[in-house]
Amino acid sequence: MSGNNLLACPPQLKAIQHYLKLGVDYEGREPVITYWARLYSLQTALKIDKKSPEARTLLAGLMDWLEAFKKNNHDNEAISSDVAGQALLENEANKLFMFADSNDRAGNFNKNVVKSFYTAGVILDVCDVFGELSEEVLAQRKYAKWKATYIHNCLKQGQTPIPGPIGGDEDGPTTGDELGFTVPQGPAPSSEQTSTYNPPVLPTQPSLPPVAASSPAHDTQPAASKCPVSAADIKMARKHCKWADSALDYEDITTAVENLTKALQLLKGNLS
């Protein structure tokens, strides 16, 4: 069964239709994402309806495609390993998020920014197949979906969006269809969830604190012991290192260097 045929969802399975569209969108450029998106769709559909003839037809098509794809790609670590698969998806979501966030903060508001924020959040929905997600990923997912809706609503109403994290989602969730592109929709974030996430701003090059001449013992004391790195920044630095490692698997040197640089800056920022 082709990807387009897998888009024919019965009404009761409408909740997964957008995830199937994500799979079709990535089928030609990163089929690993298609695989996990369809597996997520299958798992979700089984919880909704696995008895009606219409649902069974779709489920059977998904199962056949997933089985064939896994068999033909058994040597792909991003398929055989949940860790590698999750790293690839999170890396793709992070690239989309960083593109959207940088444009948002620069005041560049357009449909591509909306789509990138939204798709990043949706790809992180798919990451639920790997189990419990970290607090950072959950926060990033909620923020990305809310930001997509916020910018879309502002542009639709002829208003200029406010860059960066602000307020909450006052107008309710917006679907991919309403945004004007076909990407899946996951759970809509609440105002409490969206207003607490502030995407990291990379610190400027720090300067080490002066050392008092009368305290020779300080000359050999590591600066990090004075200003320990916060647990939150350590987690984020680890994320960037993981994304860099995933990027190297696909010979994406630019993304690898960007993420390693961000990890280093997060850690060095705590020495100032």
UniProtKB/TrEMBL annotation:
Q: Provide a GO CC annotation, any one.
A: multivesicular body
- Which portions of the chain have biased composition (kind: Polar residues)? 188-198
Looking at the keywords, is Membrane present?
Answer: yes
| Gene designation | LOC108664605
Tell me what this protein is called. Vacuolar protein sorting-associated protein VTA1 homolog
Q: Where is the composition biased (Pro residues)?
A: 200-209
Q: Which GO terms describe its biological process?
A: late endosome to vacuole transport via multivesicular body sorting pathway; protein transport
Q: Where in the cell is it found?
A: Cytoplasm; Endosome membrane
Q: What lineage does the source organism belong to?
A: Eukaryota, Metazoa, Ecdysozoa, Arthropoda, Crustacea
Disordered: annotated segments: 161-225
Keyword terms of this UniProt record? Cytoplasm, Endosome, Membrane, Protein transport, Transport
Boundaries of each Vta1/callose synthase N-terminal domain copy?
16-156
Q: Topology relative to the membrane, per the entry?
A: Peripheral membrane protein
The family assignment reads: Belongs to the VTA1 family.
Ranges for domain Vta1 C-terminal come to 233-267
Q: Which InterPro entries match?
A: Vta1-like, Vta1/CALS_N, Vta1/CALS_N_sf, Vta1_C
